[in-house]
Specification:
Strand order of the largest sheet: 4-1-3-2-5
Shape: globular
Number of helices: 6
CATH topology: Replication Protein E1, Chain: A
CATH class: Alpha Beta
Distance between the termini: 41 Å
Helix content: 25-40%
Number of domains: 1
Number of strands: 5
Radius of gyration: 16 Å
Structural class: alpha+beta
């Protein structure tokens, strides 16, 4: 795979929102990459991106209804930051997976609530793996998690921040700007 490094671009896009992230999660696909050619892996990555976009749309709709898709930056939409990873290329059990960050959710939503929504939409709607699903409440500073999230950029241009399954609502932008002032 080709070597490129877009971490600087990713940092500019996602790090300003680290303070508004409420939950972080990992969702695995059914796609195993061991002993696959670069061409086969690229096809799997494109398919993973399609699934993540579908998942993101369903996640937005769950929390903000039909208006979520009419205006992706609508102030009531959840914040979704998505990073695509290949996993370990030499491990037979390793799968292509996503690291997600969620924010801009009502404070009454508990970790258990969001786990149920995440699992239902990732497994049942997007039809991805239920193995190794992980979600937890975020810490007050998610910079390390976000840096880890896009460390895969060095493996190719399909990896790292998936801007097409990322959603940044207007008020998350306003919150991130005011917290840096």
């Amino acid at each position: 795979m080709q070597f490129i490094n877009e971490n600087k671009r990713d940092n500019l896009i996602v790090l300003p929102y680290s303070k508004v992230i409420q939950f972080v999660a990992v969702g695995h696909t059914h796609m195993h990459i061991k002993d696959k050619t670069d061409a086969q892996i690229n096809v799997m990555l494109v398919n993973a991106q399609k699934s993540a976009r579908f998942f993101s749309r369903k996640f937005l709709q769950f929390f903000n209804g039909r208006k979520a898709l009419k205006d992706m930056s609508h102030q009531n939409n959840p914040l979704i930051i998505s990073h695509l990873h290949t996993g370990n290329l030499n491990n037979a059990s390793s799968t292509i997976h996503y690291h997600f960050a969620f924010g801009n959710l009502n404070n009454c939503i508990t970790e258990e609530d969001i786990k149920l929504v995440f699992e239902d939409l990732w497994v049942n709607s997007a039809r991805q793996s239920n193995k190794k699903l992980w979600l937890q409440q975020a810490t007050t500073d998610n910079r390390l998690w976000l840096n880890y999230g896009h460390r895969e950029n060095k493996h190719g241009n399909l990896l790292g921040l998936d801007i097409f399954s990322t959603c940044i609502p207007h008020n998350a932008y306003a919150t991130s700007i005011s917290s840096t002032l």
